[in-house]
Amino acid sequence: MDALSNSLAAADIATTMHPYTNLRQHEQTGPLIISRGDGIRVYDERGKEYIEGLAGLWSVAVGFSEKRLADAAYQQMLKLPYYHTFSSKAHEPSIRLAEKLVEMTPENLTRVFFTSSGSEANDTIVKMMWFMNNALGRPKKKKFLARTKGYHGITVASGSLTGLPINHRDFDLPAIPVRHLTCPHFYRFGMEGEDEAAFTARLLAELEAVIAEEGADTIAAFIGEPLMAAGGVLPPPVGYWEGVEKICRANDIMLIADEVICGFGRLGTPFGCQKFSFTPDIMTLSKQITSSYMPLAAVMFSEAIYQAIADNTATIGNFGHGFTASGHPVATAVGLENLAIFEERDLIGNAARLEASFQAGIRSFADHPLVGEARGTGLIGAVELVADKATKRPFAKVGRAGTIAGGIGHEEGLIFRAIGDQLALCPPMISTEDDVKEIMTRMGRTLERLTGAVAKEGLE
Ligand code: PMP
């Protein structure tokens, strides 16, 4: 490394507490400093090339060098760099984007509330549900249902909805009333002798039992990602979502689809709820909304929810919630341009067309001795590493094989995400058939080398 790289790395270690990072390890290994992007590729400060196989954090749909988004941001900054949307103030980009989102999402979602992150959007939903149920004179209806391994963010309320131990342990979460139901992942949570349909039936019976136990009049909403992504890329079992929707409707429980990763075509349909045939009352959007060129998220919700909240503001005054950056003009202008590119290049259709070769590529790793399951749908997939393929036994030291794989991946020029020992791929939506081939080639080389590396460390 040259002097600049060395001094940058030293400054990083000296100053920055990185999110989702083992800090003591980071002090030893230092950062991987990415300095530029080009299409689906990024380059580190030594000029080494990587395919960004996770599109950043499942988010950079149009790739890392889209000038039109840079221009949209620049033009908006020249015209009106900032204005807020409190107390009836408005500006054109946020109005236009709201209109666009209402047009794109399922028909019943007629209203939008903007935030800057997925976490803030899910916190907003929690508060909207509480506010709405107070307004409707049902102050007991405040609990949430979520799933183990679900991911909904890390702020106090959204982190409570998330169902991962690392986000709860030592953070004193959950801090809001939430029940986490069984993770709908057949490979890991299906029981001996149970087929997928029986697994679904068991999950739905559990949902009904929890509602009966808690009382439907105490439960505000059920939240779930159509396909659980950050928990390990876990497609739901057949019939699951139709069943959940039916039970929620029968019990007057709002259904929230957290589409932060599935949204905008990742599964080959505009939204994940369409892939799995259900209609949510509320939807969380973020990430691909701007291809992450600017921070932005949106809560989409039904007219009935809006009307209940609006009625209450007529009585008590303002809806006392909102962020300095809600509907930020530069972020919403970039979002509009990004969605225009989605349409012009038919990126959702592109994901649908690539699904066959991408999923075949992922599943081609199923025979590898360390791969317990190779899974996914649309343009998202994962392989789960196990110590014993026959019994599905995970490695005793969870996450070590994943970390080793990540390191080899870097050497092979492929960035994916190791979620414990699950290796996730979610490439940019502009990828081509050739890109998919190259991603699978690099993943294949990584897995080939992994066998020896795991044996060498004596991982069991
Ligand atoms: N919901 C889902 C489904 C997510 O995947 C994420 C982030 N990975 C979030 C919410 C939280 O978004 P943010 O990191 O922007 O707060």
TrEMBL record:
It is an enzyme of class 2 (transferase). It comes from Mesorhizobium robiniae. Its cofactor is pyridoxal 5'-phosphate. InterPro entries: Aminotrans_3 (IPR005814), Aminotrans_3_PPA_site (IPR049704), PyrdxlP-dep_Trfase (IPR015424), PyrdxlP-dep_Trfase_major (IPR015421), PyrdxlP-dep_Trfase_small (IPR015422). Signal peptide: none annotated. It comes from the Bacteria. One of its GO terms (molecular function) is 4-aminobutyrate:pyruvate transaminase activity. PROSITE patterns: AA_TRANSFER_CLASS_3 (PS00600). Belongs to the class-III pyridoxal-phosphate-dependent aminotransferase family. This is 4-aminobutyrate--pyruvate transaminase. Keywords: Aminotransferase, Pyridoxal phosphate, Transferase. Pfam families: Aminotran_3. Its EC number is 2.6.1.96.
